[in-house]
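note to self — DONT lose this again. spent like an hour looking for the file last time. sequence + predicted structure for the chain T wanted, 321 res
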Amino acid sequence: MRSTLAPSSLEAIRRARQRIAGIAIRTPVVALAAAPGPARIVLKLESLQPIGSFKLRGAANAMALARREALAHGVYTASAGNMAQGVAWCARHLGVRCRVIVPETAPDNKIAAIQRLGGEVIKVPFDDWWRAMIDHGYPGMDGFFIHPFANAAVMAGNATIGLELLEDEPRVDAVLVPWGGGGLACGIASALRAVAPNVRVFAVELDVAAPLSASFARGEATSITPKRTFVDGIGGRSVAPEMFALAQTLLAGVLQVSLAQVAAAVRQLAEQNRVVAEGAGAAPVAAALAGVPDASCIASVVSGGNIDSATLTTVLRGEIP
């Protein structure tokens, strides 16, 4: 069932920060090594979360807010990997059952990680998986459903990144965030609008899988036919209408990067910063390296580091998987 979403309030974000303390860590902000050009580029390393992704923040806040009786039959989510790991991690912490609806195309390394955390993986055709996110649930499944992005509690948890970022790098004037479902970008933008409204937040998409760009171009949430690539954490088929409404309100725009730029950013992060990033996490770095007009200090949110070892090896050889 869809619901109308509003930007996270500062009070909701601050309360989320208290709830998730001790589950999600405060990740560091570090300078990008050998950054070209006049702008300073810094990295918010969400890849260092215990599950290797920012998703732990939103999952932890959503489950902390759920009534105990709502969790009696366990929790479930629809995720290609990272949100699933966040929900599974928190479910194990609370001692409740966790099930995950995943598309048949989900990467093996992320499925293995879900199972290591005790999550039960249920593979379905891609269209059925996508429908679960549109419908906010899956037919025949009981338990408490946690939407991976279109959920107020999830976004408030994600928004805590914005508060940390501004505290650690107060000079930042542009923040680049990968656009998957929009819960990360809109969450961070909500926090920054409340405490630093002059800071611009840009979503980052892959040029061959850019539903948000298409939606902005048409002025309404729209669908595309994305190209499948090794950048599996972003680039869905459509933008949820409720998330597009938030994006129009909160974001300064969308930046696109190529597959070659993302691969180069993954390689640079590994070789120069000793940071392992998945494709979606490296996309904002690729965009920062390409330049942001009128920005003197750019923060790139490295959203996750769950990249398949074979894929990483290919990228480090200078090839594109």
